[in-house]
Amino acid sequence: MKMKSALLAAVVLGAMLFSRPLFSQDHRPFWQEAKGGAAPLVGNLPSSFAPLAEKVSPAVVTVYSSRVLKAPAGPEFFFFGIPKGMRQEGVGSGFILTEDGYVLTNNHVVADMEKVKVMVGLDGKKEYTAEVVGADPKTDVALIKISATGLPTVALGDSDQLRVGDWVAAIGSPFGFGHTLTVGVVSAKGRRLGIGPYDDFIQTDASINRGNSGGPLVNLSGEVVGINSVIIAPAGGNVGVGFAIPINLAKSILTQLKEKGKVERSWLGVSVQEVTPELAESFGMKQPRGALVAQVIKGSPAEKAGLEPGDVIIAFAGAQIESSSDLPAAAALYGVGRKAEIKVLRNGKEETRSLTLEAMPEEKELAARMGPQGSAKNALGLSVKDLTPETAEELGYQGLTGVVVVAVDSNGPAGQQDIQQGDLIQRIDRTFIRNVEDFDRVAGALRSGRMVRLYIRRGDASLFLAFPLPGGK
Fold first, then answer.
1. Fewer Cβ neighbours under 10 Å: the N or C end of the chain?
2. Helix (H) or strand (E) holding 332
């Protein structure tokens, strides 16, 4: 966790999404697709990248915006190196998708803007006022439009074909210097930075700096394979570790941005966590895989399908779920109203459940619906579920009352003690706990800085655990 916190402290911005492309009604995208995919790379370094620059640079633009900057919580987050909460002029990059002026860039380049201007042309003398057609903060992708015709365009390639070690070039306006080309390789794929539920970044050592945001990452054929978005910048500048949004991920939402101005995501209604080696062993799994259900939202498709906290989702709609991060990404754009089968591990056995996905609620509604459901977002850092007759028989808790621990936040107060998955919590202090409702009511009233005492059952043994909650004087 310390390493993760350090990483997050240096991240500038970004979040991604995995899904199938959503095309217009004639099943063709409105942008230009590359034909035949990326050309195979030769074994030797090209004698010059000038032909690549000549091909792509005319379609790369500089984006200027005036806005009040807003950033994720935490003093280490910066947009273009400017502290959050100030009115500033920002500069970023973008690239032209269509001859009539659709431009793709990062959401954080144009978010909260008062006005957006786009500079087109290698001489930087053609200035246009841009309209934000659609934006998606969760993926950091935005589609803007300028009133022009006959513009140069780029072709979108296939980011799935990228290999670690492939040559790539970044083109953009670092620090406002337009049409700057830097070259490197794909350093890694599938990077998850913990920024959002859809992280899936391409890592590259091609130099990316402030102002490159929204610009294209291209292969040697001049096809856009990524959108430059995030840098690790402990000293404020490039250190050879940059991240780009895979273009296939951006393709999956472009049509919705153009036609609706936003992205409509489908929803399962569960919160999930990673299956650790310890949890895998407790579930009788040979190796960690899948997504552990920590919470089932009331009234959600998952609840209607009978999913429970403690289930491990190992497949969704025929696709294997190897990591907890795979599930939100796979479900988000699967389609509202579509039916899907989910394969889960429960009590050591595989079960298949069918459900119909629904539209993801708005943020405020979602927060209200998540409410007190025994989530790990309580003072103890525990996720629990009611003790059913089946679970009682499985764990040897027949005739007892309480709630069963299904997940433990390793950094929470209880996680620092001896609380384990499968423990039965029977009392918090002097209050008997009969169900999840009791647990949420009592746990929700616990104050920081005080001592808390749990009475639990583990197998044939009963024991008390006492520990302080963080905070207080």
1. C
2. helix 326-332
